[in-house]
Amino acid sequence: xxxxxxxxxxxxxxxxxxxxxxxxxxxxxxxxxxxxxxxxxxxxxxxxxxxxxxxxxxxxxxx
Length: 63
Description:
This protein is an all-beta fold. It contains no helices and five strands. A five-stranded antiparallel beta sheet has the order 4-3-2-1-5, with no helix packed on it.
């Protein structure tokens, strides 16, 4: 990617605030809902500029 894209549902991202890799599972009113790659639970992030796409949804093989 040459420039930062806005993450969307299905993208794998690095959450710079949490310091974790995650999958975007939903976006509601600007709040991003994230789940870890392994294990349970989820968390929220309201700063999409702090989410860096590591694997775009179109390239993920585990969907």
